[in-house]
Structure formats: C-alpha cells, structure tokens
Amino acid sequence: MNEIEGKVALVTGGSRGIGAAVALRLAQDGADVALTYERNTERADAVVDKIKGIGRRALAIQADSADTGAVTAAVDETAATFGRLDILVNNAGVFLVGSLEELGAEDIDRTLAVNVRAPFVAAQAAARHMTDGGRIISIGSNVAERTVFPGFALYAMSKTALIGMTKGLARDLGPRGITANVVHPGPTDTDANPADGPNAETFQSFTALNRYATPDEVAATVAHLSGDSGAYITGASINVDGGWTV
C-alpha cells in the first residue's frame, strides 16, 4: 500500500506545471485530489481526467487565489466532497518582475495576496479539517535564498515570506502532528519557463547541475513530505534547485 493511500489532497494552482505534476504524483501514490485553477477549465479538466484514469477521485475548483473567500471555500469544498482533508499543497502563485521604479501598488497587492495571504488563509482553513498526520506544503522559489537578477525584489519578498509562515505553522500545528514545510524549486521546465526558452541557458548556468528540473522531480519531494516517510520533517525549507544556492 502506498504511504498516502486513502488520503485527500488539495493542490492550489494544480492545472499546469508543477501543480499538475504534484496533483498527478499524489494520485499515483494513492490520494484523492482536488485542485484549484483560475481560468483555464480545459486544462483543469484534463488533469482531473488523468487522475480519474489512475483510479482516484478528483475535483477541479475554480478559484482566484487573490480572493480569500474563494480560497477558504475551495478548502471547505474539498473536505465536504471527499469527507476529509489530509494534505494541502500551496502551489498557486503569480510571477511579477520588473524594476523597482516600475512596479506599482496593484502589482504589490496582487503578488502579496496570491503568494502570501492565500497560502496563510488556506492553511488556516485546512487546519480546521485536518486530523493528526496532516501535511501543509508550500511551493516557494529558489530566489528566496539567492536572487541573482535585478527586478526580482517583489517576487523574492513574497516567496521568502513563506519561510517564516512555514516555521510558524510548524510550531502552531506540531502538537497536533501536522507538519508544515516549504519546497523551493529552481529553474523548472514548464510552459511558463521552458527549458528551451530564450533565457534558459543563462538560468541553468546558475545551477550546479547545469540543467532545468522536470516538474516530476519537484513533485517527488512534495510526495515524500506528504507521506509517512516525511512525518518527522517540519518547519523545513527544502531546495530542489539543482544547486542554485550553493
């Protein structure tokens, strides 16, 4: 039996990229999976169909992570539909970069709403449903620890905030046996940042392995943290970045 057989997971932003890979890996490992998406119903439905093809239950929930009510509702709907919630993966995010002078108040507000406030609100809501052994995993970024390009101040700030949030959650929820961790991917081959894109050679040159990750490599770490093998890991920041920070 897989480590998370019969568990229920919610992956925010699970219709593409790392989020889709995480949703599929958790399903392969035995979980029923709900995912949120903002606009692209077709993509979300495609992931749901793949999960059902694995033999697990699946649910797609349209939710803008900038809307706290929608975030809480997605958590509650997952628990109501499947009868429980064991794993929350905070993956949804926005990537707004630009010079310090160009970034406006709307850019700041949306970045913090989606990348910081939404994971916190989702964790609050999830904690109300989770029993002992629950897992909260947030997807951070390699730039939280090493920002090598100009224009990343806002994004790096938002992802660095997840480190503090994770440590606080670990302390608050530890007595209940619920763990909280943050995974920092490095350059990862997705449609938003393809390994054959115009800047890919520069990005991968900052890694020790001189290559992009696949989404499945990031998902593998999330799966480990989600299962029994990750039960004694909490409050940790784990780099899956090919040596970006070394």
Structural description of this entry:
With 246 residues, the protein is α/β, with parallel strands linked by helices. The chain has helices at residues 17-28, 41-54, 68-82, 105-127, 153-173, 200-205, 215-226, and strands at 8-11, 32-37, 58-62, 87-90, 135-139, 179-185, 236-240. 42% of the residues lie in helices and 15% in strands. Strand 1 (8-11), helix 1 and strand 2 form a beta-alpha-beta unit. It contains seven helices and seven strands; from the N terminus they run βαβαβαβαβαβααβ. It has a seven-stranded parallel sheet with strand order 3-2-1-4-5-6-7, with helices on both faces. Helix 1 packs parallel to helix 2 (41-54) and helix 3 (68-82) runs parallel beside helix 4 (105-127).
Task: Give a quick precis of the structure.
By secondary structure, the chain is α/β, with parallel strands linked by helices. Helices cover 42% and strands 15% of the residues.
